[in-house]
Design a protein that fits this description.
The protein is mainly α. The chain has one domain. Helix content is 73%, strand content 3%. The chain has a two-stranded antiparallel sheet.
């Protein structure tokens, strides 16, 4: 518990500092670092790190993807994706006696789907106004992390009914309810603060609280799905955590597993519904 709280005490201020540079390439760089480490952890967990060239190329692809959202490089992002896919097919031909087709599919999943999912934060930044994009980004992390925190404490003190005992024995129905409430309360409080701030600045905003509530509740379920997906991969590979870079939490994937799913969900929601 102490290690978990200490990591949070360091990580939260760092996160807020990064948000200050939300509209700059610094934010791209932060996502690049997160994705590079995350892809490395996933490959090591699945024991694909034995072929070092594959590890280097996959980590490089994940780390490069956020930079290809900059205006200068954006026209070439499809080329980057095709080049990476061509490399994987070439790797299958080169190491056909070591790699199976389904393994290449899993490598493609962890090296492409996860990075693209987190890169949707940059899509939000580019598609919406600066203040709204920052507000939406904060909501995404709140839905992912506050639901996780709420589920942790509610499950610890009130948890009785197991939610998915064969995948993640510690997750409970009571924890899920606590996660939904924590996510919803934090999102509403931040929204009130954002609305008051914009009114003070002379740029009042209209908030659709029905849409906001629906997005927050559904995002919690999506985050749990992402958490369980990560838990399945850990269980299949016989490990507890993806790494130890974040004491009390595990690896980068352990901390961002729900964000990888909540971010694209929120982006799609924003394209069809107004918050």
């Amino acid at each position: 518990m102490k290690a978990r709280l200490l990591t949070a005490a360091i990580g939260i201020p760092l996160f807020l500092v990064i948000l200050i540079f939300f509209e700059t390439p610094v934010f791209n760089g932060a996502l690049s670092l997160i994705l590079g480490v995350a892809v490395y952890e996933l490959l090591q967990t699945a024991q694909y790190g034995k072929i070092k060239l594959i590890t280097v190329v996959c980590v490089a692809f994940g780390a490069l993807l956020p930079w290809f959202e900059l205006p200068l490089l954006k026209p070439y992002r499809v080329l980057l994706l095709f080049a990476f896919a061509a490399f994987l097919f070439a790797a299958l031909l080169r190491w056909h006696d070591t790699l199976r087709t389904e393994q290449v599919s899993q490598i493609f999943f962890v090296s492409v789907v996860y990075p693209i999912a987190l890169t949707t934060l940059l899509y939000i930044r580019d598609d919406f106004g600066a203040s709204k994009a920052l507000y939406y980004t904060v909501l995404i992390f709140l839905c992912a992390w506050m639901s996780d925190a709420g589920a942790y404490f509610a499950g610890r003190f009130f948890g009785k009914r197991k939610m998915a005992p064969n995948i993640s024995p510690n997750k409970t129905v009571e924890g899920l309810i606590g996660g939904i409430l924590a996510s919803l309360i934090s999102v509403v409080l931040v929204t009130f603060g954002y609305s008051a701030l914009m009114s003070y600045l002379g740029e009042p905003v209209s908030i659709n609280y029905l849409s906001l509530t629906g997005a927050s509740v559904l995002a919690t379920f999506v985050g749990v799905f992402g958490d369980l997906t990560a838990s399945i991969m850990k269980r299949q590979n016989g490990i507890k955590d993806y790494g130890s870079i974040m004491p009390g939490h595990g690896g980068v994937v352990d901390r961002f597993d729900s964000v990888f799913f909540v971010a694209p969900f929120f982006y799609v929601w924003l394209r069809f519904f107004v918050i």
